[in-house]
Write a structure and sequence with these properties.
alpha/beta, 17 strands, 397 residues, binds L-homoserine, six-stranded parallel sheet, Dihydrodipicolinate Reductase, domain 2, Rossmann fold
Length: 397
């Protein structure tokens, strides 16, 4: 018998409870062991819940109950989640989390405690919602040198961009809808300004490179400055505009993670990923390319990934050491974004731009839009200044 607890009864936590009881019979078969939820931690009252007797407001009920061997943390934020998760792991209870902020800020510490206590700290739900990406990276694709990752890792911003451009909805209405659907963070600035996508690419980068990558060391630009007129011009030129989180292993041995809006050529299937869907394209030496696609946010999609972790934790009571990374004392292994290389979309009032262009030059409401030759971020910034450009956006190769 494996008893587990769910910390937080918000969007994801309530989804975990709902999914578990909906599919309990098949889950027990897959787990090969009897399982049940013993506690649900939340400071609010849920008197009408069919599981009202499982609610507690006291974390110590869970921590001190030896029958609870697995804990699902679905509270979000660093504190008190970090203190709770750390205490559980120190007691040898495995923890499964959907909390990307926690993993991106404290993953190295929590993974090391899990290893020492021979339990697990699982976080499949922290990246890409329902999409399996953490296990594929450290298990299925473990035989490869993974050199590149690029994708849409934030459902809210993809949803907003889709609604604004395809359905002509205002930013405010699209964001409100994303909040109602349970996609957005408590503070949606984290979505809009790219911080959520940054946390997710930090987790992926840490897992691939084996050293903790902190969000503060990753260049991050969100969608707040994306102009819909540029989205329309890009569309005419054969590109979609998406918020892309990327990771690259460079020849100098460093890595370059970054988050920024990018132009995606229509030939690239990432350009067709709309709404709340996420997509992650992974490149490695043996398999070449693999694409992961699915719902990137929302109650049951995210609960699906947490539930998978809970079942895995109930089944496997020894530490999965392939899913770990070391702490990093500095950021010297992270390349500066100035050397990020791409072709770039420019919009400028300057007409004399043919020497910089590589391909189509088009009218953009009286200004000129063009895709540049390949250049670094630093060179693109210099050209932006020279041309007094109103928009500069990289193109995903
Ligand atoms: N706010 C996040 C998103 C939730 O929109 O992707 C899933 O991590």
């Amino acid at each position: 018998m494996s008893k587990f607890a769910v910390l937080g009864h918000g969007v994801v936590g309530s989804g975990v409870v709902e999914l578990f009881y909906k599919n309990k019979n098949s889950i027990l078969k897959k787990a090969g062991t009897d399982m049940d939820i013993k506690y649900i931690l939340d400071l609010r009252d849920f008197p009408d819940s069919p599981y009202a007797e499982k609610f507690t407001k006291d974390f110590n009920d869970i921590l001190n109950d030896d029958e609870v061997t697995v804990v699902a943390e679905c509270m979000g934020g660093v504190e008190p989640a970090f203190t709770f998760v750390k205490s559980c792991l120190e007691k040898g209870k495995s923890v499964c989390t959907s909390n990307k902020e926690l993993v991106a800020e404290k993953g190295d510490i929590l993974l090391s405690i899990a290893k020492e206590k021979n339990c697990n700290f699982f976080f499949e739900a922290s990246v890409g919602g329902a999409i399996p990406i953490i296990r594929p990276l450290h298990k299925c694709l473990a035989g490869n040198d993974i050199t590149e990752v690029a994708g849409i890792l934030n459902g809210t911003t993809n949803f907003i961009l889709t609604k604004m451009y395809n359905d002509k909805m205002s930013f405010e209405d699209a964001l409100k809808l994303a909040q109602e659907l349970g996609y957005a963070e408590k503070d949606p600035t984290a979505d809009v300004e790219g911080h959520d996508a940054c946390r997710k690419i930090c987790i992926i980068s840490s897992l691939i490179f084996g050293k903790h990558v902190y969000p503060k060391n990753v260049f991050t630009k969100g969608i707040s400055k994306v102009n819909l007129a540029d989205v329309a011009t890009a569309d005419n030129m054969g590109y979609a505009v998406k918020l892309i989180a990327s990771f690259k292993k460079l020849e100098n041995g460093k890595i370059l993670p970054a988050v920024m809006p990018m132009l995606i050529p229509f030939e690239n299937i990432i350009s067709k990923v709309d709404d709340v869907f996420n997509a992650v394209l992974v490149t490695g030496d043996g398999f070449d390319k693999a694409m992961f696609y699915g719902r990137g946010a929302g109650k049951l999609p995210t609960a699906s990934a947490v539930m998978g972790d809970i079942i895995d934790a109930a089944k496997h009571k020894v530490n999965v050491f392939s899913q770990s990374w070391e702490s990093a004392s500095d950021d010297s292994f992270i390349e500066c974004v100035e050397s990020f290389t791409a072709k770039w979309y420019f919009r400028t009032a300057e007409k004399n731009i043919s020497e910089y262009a590589d391909g189509e030059i088009t009218d953009a409401n009286g200004e000129t839009a063009f895709i540049s030759k390949e250049m670094t971020f630093a060179q693109a910034k210099a050209l932006e200044e020279k041309l007094s450009a109103s928009a500069v956006i990289p193109v995903l190769a």
